[in-house]
Structures are given as C-alpha cells and as structure tokens.
Design brief:
The chain has nine helices and no strands. The two termini are about 35 Å apart. The protein is mostly helical. The protein has two domains: about 15-80 and about 115-180; about 190-280, no CATH class. The protein has helices at about 5-80, 85-95, 120-180, 190-200, 200-230, 235-240, 250-255, 260-270, 270-280.
Length: about 290
C-alpha cells in the first residue's frame, strides 16, 4: 500500500529526528571515552610515583649502610684495634690534613673506647651491620613486590583500555549502520528491518528485535503525547512543559513531533529562557 505524502513527510521527519539523536549519543560517548582516558592516565601517573618512591627508599638504605661501614672503619682506626691505626695508617696519613683526625692518639693505642661511634666493641658494630643488611634485604624484597604490583596494574589498565576501545568502536559502527542503512533518507525504515530481524537466527534476532520494538514503542508514545498537547490550549500546554525542566529532551521531542503551527503557539506562551533551551535541543546546530 503506497504511503500518502503526509505519511512520507512524517516518516522522513521521524528518521531525521532519530539521526540527530544518534549524533547526540555519539558526542556523549566521545566525551565518556576522553574522560576514561584521563582517569587511566592519572592511575598510571600514581603507579609511577609509587614505583619511584620504592626505588628512593632502597637508595637511602644503601647509603645508610655505606655510612655505617665508614663509621665503623673510623672507629677501628681511632681505637687502634690490632694496631692497625698506629702501625699501618699513622705513618702514611699523619701529615694529611683532616684525614689524620681519625688516627689514634698515642695514649689510646691498643685500647677500645666508647668516645667515637657509640660501640663498646667490634662485635656490637658487626651486629649492627648485619641488622642493617637484613633491613636492606627486606626493603629490596618489598620494592620488587611493589614493582610487580605496578606492572600487574598497568597490564590490567591496558587490558581494560583495549576492551573500552573495542566497545566504543562497536558503538560507532552500529551508529553508522543505523544512519547509513536503517535511517537513511531512501532507506527502508525501521518497520522493514523489523520484518527482516524476525527471519534471522533466534539469538541475534532477539537482541536486535527488542531494540527496534522499543524504539517503535517510544516513537508511538511521543506521537500520542504530541497529539494530546496539540489539542490543548497553547497557554495550558506551555505551563506543563515549563514544569518539565528536569527532562527537557522529552519535551523537545514532543514539541518537534507537533506541527510547526502548534509548536510555535506553545513556545510563544512559554518562559523565553526555557523556550530558548528547547529550541536549542530541537536544533543543536543552530
């Protein structure tokens, strides 16, 4: 059965509305993808900071052990343990400024004192070195574990990013299909594709059929609302639309489905600010 000119015009208008809606959804998806990319970048920056802090702690622990060893060596020389300071180093370093300060005094030769380093004997100093070595080993182990955790988290972020990219790409391809095939100006329209989906395999058909049916039902509801508001007085309809500030998109769809005359009468009775917002939604490129 051939469609009347009015029906064809309404169909083209509905398809144009759907095309604009799809463009809005694409813009929203692009914004969400950019937001997700920034979140992933922030997570990676935080993980890199944790990795650097672990390496810094290891360097500090290593420097601490070296300084303790140097202090112990100075104590051994100063206390002249085994005659090392007086018999070996004194003849070599006694005339070197600053360095000769670590050489033992003649009255302290062969004795052990607690004036320097805070150790009563060499065994205490050696025990402290062992403790520091254990701490360094533990720090290195913790650092390796932290690096492993960082690597795992980076790998998980990469996996999630890949999944998200694929999801965005799928949505883009689906939207292009709707725009170029289903909702094209010379396309068969959603009703024809409804029949086509019914002949497909059950799993795929069920998914696609539900989407088409939901869209058709939603369009029918909007048309019913448009008819109801068109039959009302413009001032009364305008007052109702002004109360829909929490869902201006729906109000815009209803108004756009009306005739230009009815739509203009209602907008003229509305608050100018709200009317401007609705006009912008109905024609975002204006």
């Amino acid at each position: 059965m051939a469609k009347t000119p009015d029906a064809s015009a309404a169909e083209k208008k509905r398809l144009a509305d759907e095309k604009k809606k799809l463009k809005e959804e694409q813009k929203k998806q692009k914004k969400e993808a950019k937001k997700r990319a920034k979140e992933i970048e922030a997570q990676e920056a935080e993980l890199s900071a944790d990795d650097e802090s672990g390496g810094f702690f290891t360097v500090i622990a290593t420097i601490g052990i070296i300084l303790v060893w140097v202090a112990i060596l100075c104590v051994v020389i100063k206390l002249d343990v085994g005659g090392f300071g007086s018999k070996v180093l004194t003849p070599l370093l006694k005339d070197v400024p600053v360095v000769n300060l670590i050489l033992p005094n003649s009255q302290n030769s062969g004795n052990i004192s607690t004036e320097n380093g805070g150790y009563t004997n060499l065994n205490d100093a050696t025990e402290q070195i062992k403790n520091l070595e254990l701490q360094l080993q533990q720090a290195q182990t913790d650092n390796l574990k932290l690096q492993e955790d960082v690597a795992n988290l980076k790998a998980e972020n990469a996996r999630l990013q890949e999944f998200e990219d694929k999801q965005v790409e799928f949505q883009r391809i689906k939207n292009e299909f709707y725009e170029e095939v289903v909702y094209a100006e010379n396309g068969p329209g959603a009703e024809a594709y409804q029949k086509y989906y019914e002949s497909m395999d059950p799993t795929t058909a069920e998914y696609l059929y539900k989407q088409v049916i939901a869209q058709l039902q939603e369009d029918k509801s909007v048309q019913d609302y448009a008819s109801a508001y068109s039959s009302m007085k413009p001032k009364k309809a305008a007052a109702i639309f002004e109360q829909m500030t929490d869902n201006l998109n729906l109000a815009a769809r209803i108004l756009k489905t009306m005739s230009a005359e009815n739509r203009g009468d209602i907008l003229a009775e509305m608050d100018p600010a709200i009317a401007a917002k609705l006009t912008k939604i109905m024609d975002p490129e204006s």
